[in-house]
Amino acid sequence: MISNILEKELNKQLNAELYSAYLYLSMAAYLAQSNLNGFSNWMSIQFQEEQAHAMKLFKYILARGGKVSLEKIEKPKHEWKDIIDVFEHVHKHERGITSLINGLVDTAINEKDHATVTLLQWYVTEQVEEEANVADLLTQLKLIDGKGAGLFMLDREAKQRVFTSIV
Ligand code: OFO
């Protein structure tokens, strides 16, 4: 059985992952409207990944005998200045998610809940990868100034991204 405090915090994280999914879906729409179909695909995959992160928490809360409590999902932004602005937003957003995960690990440690600490290690590792991927893309986009032939090439590369299931 999971403690009340952890149940509450895990439900909050479930909502944060669903918000991430919603935000990336909004970015996928903006990028498609900006004729960047490769980057739109990249964001659609990100949308699916965030849903998978949410589902992993959903299943875990239930498996530990807890209650899932779904909250309202905040309305995401739908306009950005350009592609660099989009990826700067993603980078900032993922750093915020990393601190939420770190806070959750602290709570699980305080609650002496080893199973939750173990589950959260997966998210800790995932955040390292997410931040690194986004930082990498952002650097490349800045190198080409977010336009021209470089952008065309990066967009074509982003089209290759596929979703790999994690649950
Ligand atoms: Fe779920 O990792 Fe991004 O937000």
Report what the structure shows.
The protein is mainly alpha-helical and 167 residues long. It has a single domain, classed as Ferritin, core subunit, four-helix bundle (Ferritin, Up-down Bundle). 75% of the residues lie in helices and 0% in strands. It has 5 helices and no strands. Helix 1 runs antiparallel to helix 2. The longest helix is centred in the N-terminal third of the chain and has 30 residues. The chain is elongated and about 55 Å long. The two termini are 22 Å apart.
Compose a concise summary of this entry:
The chain is an all-alpha fold. The protein has five helices and no strands. The two termini are 22 Å apart.
Mean pLDDT: 97
Strand content: under 5%
CATH superfamily: Ferritin, core subunit, four-helix bundle
Parts with pLDDT < 50 across at least 5 consecutive residues: none
Largest sheet report: none
Rg over CA atoms, rounded to whole Å, is 17 Å
Structural class: mainly alpha
The level 1 CATH classification is: Mainly Alpha
CATH architecture: Up-down Bundle
Per-chain topology:
Layout: H1 4-33, H2 37-63, H3 83-110, H4 114-143, H5 148-158
Helix pairs in contact: 1-2, 1-3, 2-5, 3-4
The protein binds hydroxy diiron-OXO moiety.
The site of hydroxy diiron-OXO moiety has 7 residues, from helix 1, helix 2 and helix 3.
